[in-house]
What we know:
The chain is α/β, with parallel strands linked by helices. It has 14 helices and 6 strands. The protein has 2 domains: 2-109 and 185-208 and 269-303, Rossmann fold; 116-182, Histone, subunit A, CATH 1.10.20. 55% of the residues lie in helices and 10% in strands. β2, α2 (49-54) and β3 form a beta-alpha-beta unit. The longest helix is centred in the last third of the chain and has 23 residues, at 255-277.
Amino acid sequence: MLVVVLGPTASGKTGLAVRLAEQVSGEVLSCDSVAVYREMEIGTAKPSREERVRVPHHLIDVAGPEEHYTAGDYSRAARAAIAEISARERVPVVAGGTGLYLRALLEGLFPESDAGGAVTPIRARLRETATRRGAEYVHRLLQKVDAAAAQRIHPNDVPKVVRAIQASLSAGRPMTEAWAAGREQLAGYRVVKIGLAPDRAPLYEGINQRAEEMFRSGLVEETRGLVAKYGAACRPLGSLGYKQAQAVLRGEMTEAEAVAATAQGHRNYAKRQMTWFRREANVRWLDGFGSEVAAEAEKIVTAS
């Protein structure tokens, strides 16, 4: 069995995953695109020391901030960890907040997509073309190389349009066709998916409080040290919280403004996460935070 706990940021996924892992003699796998990086603690909301003592955790602090860690990297590492955990007759419990990473784990990625967010020469040229000739022009290019993808992606979403064109050009065929033919789904496990869907008002209040706590705990100073060591352009330092902390260091924001901007960014991110996860198949959705629905989640896992 493989248990997946998914949902928006600050919904209590980690706490629930730890509780379920204790129930089924399991181990937790983080599914977070920022928690993979070492030295980034305050702005990542990683599991607490106490949670890591209660059950073993995997795929936290596995890359340096200077490394480019892709969804493909995550998928390979997570599948290896799942196999190793299962071989010891324990149950893998995935705490999933990054939708692309979770999709890569469960459904696979075709090889040409493994560039992830890397700025390849093709992508750089497409971005330059979009700046020079406009979003509609590059969307028409996408229509020529992958009409199905062009129907799904809004013309104004230039980053997605550019990535889709690059993937199609790299694969030598439409990205949509390559995805369908080349993805290798995770096999051999009975997957139980539990989704957390707390009410928006308390979720947003929790997100606001988390943003305040990050800055109160020293996010600006942590960011100062990371910038000095790895440079301001270091990719994970563009993530929510660290981006705003850098603005404080440059004198572009007050700390209060940075807290507000970070909270707003995470609220927007939570909305995008729910839009993504609602497309996941076979999810048992529970209306509440992880701590509120733990007993119900335990019944689902026990009965599976």
